[in-house]
């Protein structure tokens, strides 16, 4: 009788170092996003970043070779958050494509809300990246929108949504999610985050749902 091999126990010191490395990296990315949004990519020096993050310049160079690498890492960090949170939200929503669309949009908004500085920076400074860097984030952006795109397509195919241009509707949902970061200074005067998500969801689904299915989703198209 054979038994499966047990995984080797992780060295506690190695685990602690991994946690510290992850924490420090996120600390630097958060500080970089905040500072670059405020002063612009070209207006930020490594020393200024070190001051913002309350670390030494030498420590920054242990994680990032130069400022270009740091900018790319800030943007990739947001896209990786989409890649983790959006599919999980869609899966948790079950098999109904309408519920999946609502869940995917909320997850996109939640990532944007959590990374508002970095989201704004993506729009302002992605042109400063190398060609290779820009191509990387373009590919990642397409991949992270796939769960939303697939749910919209399934909703059309199943007759719950009217016939629409799936790519255009996906684009519109993503613009609204990013709009929370881009116009947050204005929107927060009258809307809290959950209100923004609920009202934008109702607006979009109200236009997408086939008339015979509207009453099935009143909790989404007419939120209380």
Topology of this protein?
Elements: H1 12-39, H2 46-53, H3 57-63, H4 67-92, H5 97-114, H6 116-125, H7 131-144, H8 146-157, H9 166-182, H10 184-187, H11 193-208, H12 218-221
Q: Count of helical segments?
A: 12
Shape: elongated
CATH architecture classification of the domain at 66-221: Orthogonal Bundle
**Through-space gap between termini:** 60 Å
Residue share in β-strands: under 5%
Radius of gyration: 21 Å
Describe the main β-sheet briefly.
none
Category from helices, strands and their pairing: mainly alpha
Named CATH topology of the domain at 66-221: Tetracycline Repressor, domain 2
Query: Would you count the extended β strands for me?
Result: 0
Q: Which sequence of SSEs, written as H and E, runs from N to C?
A: HHHHHHHHHHHH
The CATH class of the domain at 66-221 turns out to be Mainly Alpha
Helix content: over 70%
Query: Mean pLDDT score, rounded?
Result: 88
Q: Show unreliable segments.
A: none
Structural description of this entry:
InterPro entries: DNA-bd_HTH_TetR-type_CS (IPR023772), Homeodomain-like_sf (IPR009057), HTH-type_TetR-like_transc_reg (IPR050109), HTH_TetR (IPR001647), KstR2_TetR_C (IPR041490), Tet_transcr_reg_TetR-rel_C_sf (IPR036271). This protein has a domain at 66-221: Tetracycline Repressor, domain 2 (Orthogonal Bundle), CATH 1.10.357.10. The protein is 73% helix and 0% strand. It contains twelve helices and no strands. The chain has helices at 12-39, 46-53, 57-63, 67-92, 97-114, 116-125, 131-144, 146-157, 166-182, 184-187, 193-208, 218-221. Helix 8 packs across helix 9 (166-182) and helix 9 runs antiparallel to helix 11 (193-208).
